[in-house]
Design brief:
Elements (H helix, E strand, L loop, with lengths): L18 E4 L2 E5 L15 E5 L7 E5 L33 E13 L14 E12 L2 E5 L2 H5 L5 E2 L6 H4 L9 H5 L6 E3 L2 H5 L7 E3 L5 H13 L3 E4 L6 H8 L7 E4 L1
Parallel strand pairs: 4-6, 8-11, 9-10, 10-12, 11-12
Antiparallel strand pairs: 1-2, 1-4, 2-3, 5-6, 6-7
C-alpha cells in the first residue's frame, strides 16, 4: 500500500525505479546516497525530506541510454596525467550531482484501479541523474545498473581480519611497494578521466569525496571500464597484486 494507504503495485514492473516522490517525502535507493565502497542492501531505502514538485506518487526511472560528454578537439592542454606517487588527495571539490526531469512520463496502474481510468495513482517519470563539474555537464548516470555490474570491484586487503580472520596486516609504504617503478597516472580533472588515449592505469584522486567517487564508478562502467574502488585505508602491497590482474587500458582505480 506504500504511504498512500490505497495503492497496491506489482513490484515486477518497478525494477528500474531508483526513487519515489510522495507528498513531502523522497524514498531513495540507498546506493545513491552513500560511498560506492559501502555495499548497500539491494532492498535498502532511505528517506529524504522533499519532493520533485509533482502531485501524487512519482516513480523516478533513468533513461535507457544515459549520455556522457565526449571530449572535443583541443583539450590536450588539460591532460597532464601526472605520475601517481601515492598521495591521497581530493581534486574534485567542484563535482556535484543533480536531478532533472525529461519530458517522458507514463501512468503506472496499481492492482486496485482500472487501467482505463484517466487519473492514475502513480506515474513513471524519466529522470536524469546528472554529474556536473562546476556549471559544466559531464554525464548522465544510471547508478543502480552500474553498481550492480560485475565490472565493479571493491578492494580488500587479503590479510584484513574482517575478511580472513587473520590478525596480521600487510606492511609497506607506497614507495617501498612500487620502488619508483609504477606506470600509474593521477586523474585530477574530468578531461583526464574522459580521455581514453592514455594506456596507463588511472588513479582518480577523489579521496574522502563520496559523491565524486560514486560519479566516477558509474561513469567508468558506462564507458566499459573496470573501476576498482579503494577504501580510506589502503594496503599498497595487496593493491599492487590486485591491479595486475586487469589490463591497464580498462582499469580505473577510484581513490
Amino acid at each position: 500500500m506504500f504511504d498512500t494507504g490505497i495503492s497496491n503495485f506489482d513490484p515486477t514492473g518497478l525494477s528500474d525505479v531508483f526513487a519515489i516522490s510522495s507528498g513531502n517525502s523522497m524514498y531513495v535507493a540507498a546506493p545513491l546516497l552513500c560511498d560506492p565502497y559501502e555495499k548497500a542492501g539491494e532492498t535498502e531505502i532511505r528517506h529524504v525530506a522533499g519532493n520533485i514538485g509533482r502531485p501524487g506518487l512519482s516513480m523516478l526511472v533513468p533513461p535507457p541510454e544515459p549520455k556522457i560528454h565526449k571530449l572535443p578537439p583541443g583539450t590536450w592542454d588539460q591532460l597532464n596525467f601526472l605520475r601517481f606517487e601515492g598521495k591521497l588527495e581530493n581534486s574534485f571539490m567542484r563535482t556535484s550531482i543533480h536531478l532533472s526531469l525529461t519530458a517522458y512520463e507514463m501512468p503506472f496502474p496499481d492492482q486496485l484501479t482500472d487501467e482505463h481510468i484517466i487519473d492514475q495513482s502513480a506515474t513513471l517519470v524519466e529522470t536524469l541523474v546528472s554529474v556536473f563539474d562546476g556549471e559544466r555537464w559531464v554525464a548522465d548516470l544510471d547508478v543502480l545498473t552500474a553498481l550492480g555490474s560485475d565490472m565493479v570491484t571493491r578492494f580488500a586487503c587479503k590479510n584484513n581480519p574482517a575478511m580472513s580472520g587473520v590478525s596480521r596486516v600487510c606492511h609497506g609504504s607506497f614507495d617501498q611497494v612500487f620502488q619508483n617503478a609504477n606506470s600509474m597516472v593521477s586523474v585530477d580533472n574530468w578531461e583526464e578521466f574522459l580521455d581514453q588515449s592514455e594506456d596507463a592505469i588511472k588513479i582518480v584522486r577523489a579521496h574522502g569525496n563520496w559523491l565524486a567517487r560514486l560519479a566516477f564508478v558509474v561513469a567508468s562502467v558506462q564507458q566499459r571500464r573496470r573501476p576498482l574502488i579503494l577504501p580510506p585505508d589502503i594496503c599498497w602491497s595487496c593493491f599492487k597484486e590486485q591491479m595486475s590482474s586487469v589490463p591497464a587500458p580498462h582499469q580505473v582505480s577510484i581513490l
